[in-house]
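Sequence, please.
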């Protein structure tokens, strides 16, 4: 999301995403909490087998905090002055500690909330963090920004005949091992009856239409 062709960190991308988010919040008046990943900088689960998996996950969590700081700065600079960055990893010089009730309070006050650092422990993906925080903060739906425009039965970047799903269930996503999110996250969302909408990050500006109920731009996953 935040990389360009030549840079893992592209400040123009932070700016672009921030401006779109501000426009979306202003036009829809939604309460928005965002869980940022760090795949453009470092993704723990794809680290070399020569690297200890726990340490790789720790590096991945710190990468998400870097993205969180970059996005917060861009949001504040573009006018969202009351944006809050909160993390499950104790890093008080850079972000507030994650406290469920405090996060909910920020949303009730109309603040944009960025959550970084995953769940604060190795072995859990950003997807699992999204599912957990969505439930704790009483969210109504998860919007999963991807590099493809929905969920397919195989990778559409490798298989031109891949079939796109318009609507599927959490159970189907788990049973068919669809890789758009990990199985733990799907299981958590199924348990809490939390819908997920998967769309292409390039369509971020279309989120108001999606919020109004137009799910044609991606795939809706629900119980």
């Amino acid at each position: 999301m935040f990389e360009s062709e030549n840079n893992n960190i592209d400040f123009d991308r932070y700016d672009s995403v921030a401006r779109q988010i501000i426009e979306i919040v202003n036009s829809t008046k939604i309460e928005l909490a965002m869980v940022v990943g760090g795949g453009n900088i470092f993704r723990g689960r794809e680290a070399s087998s020569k690297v200890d998996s726990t340490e790789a996950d720790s590096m991945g969590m710190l990468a998400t905090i870097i993205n969180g700081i970059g996005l917060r700065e861009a949001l504040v600079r573009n006018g969202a002055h009351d944006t809050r960055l909160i993390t499950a990893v104790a890093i008080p010089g850079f972000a507030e500690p994650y406290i469920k009730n405090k996060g909910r309070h920020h949303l009730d006050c109309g603040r944009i909330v960025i959550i970084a650092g995953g769940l604060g422990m190795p072995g859990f993906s950003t997807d699992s963090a999204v599912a957990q925080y969505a439930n704790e903060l009483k969210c109504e739906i998860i919007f999963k920004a991807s590099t493809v425009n929905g969920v397919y039965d195989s990778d559409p970047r490798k298989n031109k005949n891949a079939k796109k799903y318009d609507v599927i269930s959490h159970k189907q996503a788990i049973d068919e091992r669809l890789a758009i999110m990990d199985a733990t996250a799907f299981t958590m969302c199924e348990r809490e009856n939390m819908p997920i909408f998967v769309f292409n990050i390039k369509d971020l500006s279309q989120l108001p239409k999606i919020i109004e109920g137009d799910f044609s731009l991606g795939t809706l996953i629900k119980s």
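The chain has two domains: 1-139, 140-223.
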